[in-house]
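Can't attach files on this board, so I'm pasting raw text. These are the components:
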Amino acid sequence: MVGKILLKLKGRFGLLKKVRSGGFVLIEFAIALPLLVMILYSLAMVSLNIFRLGRDQLADYVLEAEAQYAMKRITQAARFAKDVQTYGDSSIVKFVYHSLGNTGYNKPIPDLKNMQYLLYTSRDIRETRYFRGYKRANRNYPNLYVERQEGSYTNPITGDNYFGDTKLNYLHCALDKPKKILHIELELESLVTERKIKIATAVFMPGLEVE
Amino acid sequence: MIKILKDERGFLMVNVIFLTLITAFAAMILLNAASRIKNPQSTLRLTALYLANEQLAQLESLATAGSELPTSFQGEPKDLITENLSEENPIEFEVKTEINGDNVCNVKVTVSWIANGREDFIEVERAIWIAKESS
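---
Top answer:
C-alpha cells for the assembled complex are below.
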C-alpha cells in the first residue's frame, strides 16, 4: 500500500519519467554559442594585431635599410672627395672630386716632322656629387636625392618603398677643416609607424684640399 | 543543426569540430606571432657601428698629424646617447678603444650598451698608420 503511494508520488513529481536531454543540450548550446563568438572575436583581434605588427616590422626594416644605404653612400662619397661644401641647416651637401678628363691624350705622340715627342696632358675635370633633401611636386615630404649636377632631381635614394614610405627629416654635415673630418647626421622618419632613426658619424677625408 | 542538437551525441560532434577549428586557428596565429617579435638590438647595432666609425675617423685624423692615439672617445659627446629605440627610453653607448702596435696600429673600438636589461656590443677593427718624421 505504502509502496503504491510512494510510486504514485514519484510519478507525480516526474521522478520516474524518462529523462530527455534535448532541453539540456539546447540550454548548453545557448551558453556555448556566445562563448564561441567571444573566443573567435578575441582571436580575430589578436590576429589583427599580429598583422599590424608585421606591417610595422616591415616599415621599420625599410627605415633602417634606407638610413644605412643613404649613410653608406654619403660616407663613401666623403671619403674620396677633394672638397666639400655645406649649406647651413639646409639638407644639402656637395662633394667635389678631380678626375682625369681624357686619358687618351695622356701619352707621348711622335712628331716626325720635328723629330720629337709631344706630350698632351689630360685635363683636370671637377666632378661633383650632390646629396640633397628635396620635396617633389606630388609629394608631401622630402626624399634624399643624390645627383651629379645641381638642379636635376631624378634619383631619390630614400622613400617611395612599397613596404613603408619614409621622409627625410634632416641631413646635417659640418666640416672640421684642420682635422679633415666631416661630421654627418642623418635622420629619417617612417610615414607608417612615425618612428625616427638618427645616425651620426664622422668621416676622415685624406684627400681634402686645405688652402 | 536543430536535428543534430536533438541528442547529446550530435552536440558533442559539433563541439569537437568547433574546438578543433579554434585550436587550429589559435595555433596558426601564435606561429605567425613568433616570427614577428621585434628585435630592438638591430637598430642600436646600426647606430653603434657608425659611432665606432666616428671614433676611428678621429683616430685616423690624429694619426695623419703624427699624434699619439688616445683611448678616450674623440667624437661628439651627444652622439653617445641615442633615441632610436624610443624617444622615452634613450640608450647610452660606452666606447672603449684598444690600440696595439707602434707605427701601424691595430685599433679595436668596442661599443657596448644595455637595452631592455640585455647587454650587447659590437667590435670594429682597423689598421691605422701613424705618420712619423724620418730622422
